[in-house]
Amino acid sequence: QVQLVESGGGLVQPGGSLRISCAASGFSFSDYNVGWFRQAPGKEREFVAAIAWRGSRMYYADFVEGRFAISRDNAKKTVYLEMNSLKPEDTAVYYCARGGTMYTTVGDRNAYGYWGQGTQVTVSS
């Protein structure tokens, strides 16, 4: 069965950096697009970033503003999200999600349906 396990979250000061990871199992990792989403208390889950199975096409939400970088290591079956210049409004539970197998759907939010348990990222002084 599909399993996605996030890790690396924690407490960081505003302006700081953090890298979170998503370890995948139970499917052919290198054949699927993978994305990062986040959800703050009382808010809807929102798209953060996504990367195609070939690793050459990435999409980012507008609020990222060049601060985050998504990457994947197919050999390790892991997706990363490097977050820099973090703001208090970035505080949320971050989830990775499996998308589809079509290269052209990497930016389609509706294509993501399998989720991990999430990792908490808190940006505070």
Structure characterization notes:
- With 125 residues, the protein is mainly β.
- The chain contains no helices and eleven strands.
- Strands 2, 4, 5, 6, 9, 10 and 11 form a seven-stranded mixed β-sheet that branches.
- A hairpin with a 4-residue loop joins β7 and β8.
- The chain is globular and about 40 Å long.
- The model has no long low-confidence stretch (mean pLDDT 94).
Helix content: under 10%
Secondary-structure class: mainly beta
Radius of gyration computed on alpha carbons: 13 Å
Distance between the termini: 40 Å
Report the total helices.
0
**Low-pLDDT sequence parts:** none
Number of strands: 11
Query: How large is the share of residues in beta strands?
Result: over 45%
Mean pLDDT: 94
- Shape call: globular
The H-and-E topology, N to C, reads as EEEEEEEEEEE
Biggest sheet details: 7 strands, mixed
Structure characteristics:
125 residues, four-stranded antiparallel sheet, globular, mainly beta, 46% strand
What would a concise description of this structure say?
The protein is mainly β. It has strands at 3-7, 10-12, 18-25, 34-39, 46-51, 58-60, 68-73, 78-83, 92-98, 114-115, 119-123.
Set down the secondary structure blueprint.
Blueprint: E1 3-7, E2 10-12, E3 18-25, E4 34-39, E5 46-51, E6 58-60, E7 68-73, E8 78-83, E9 92-98, E10 114-115, E11 119-123
Parallel strand pairs: 2-11
Antiparallel strand pairs: 1-3, 3-8, 4-5, 4-9, 5-6, 7-8, 9-10, 9-11
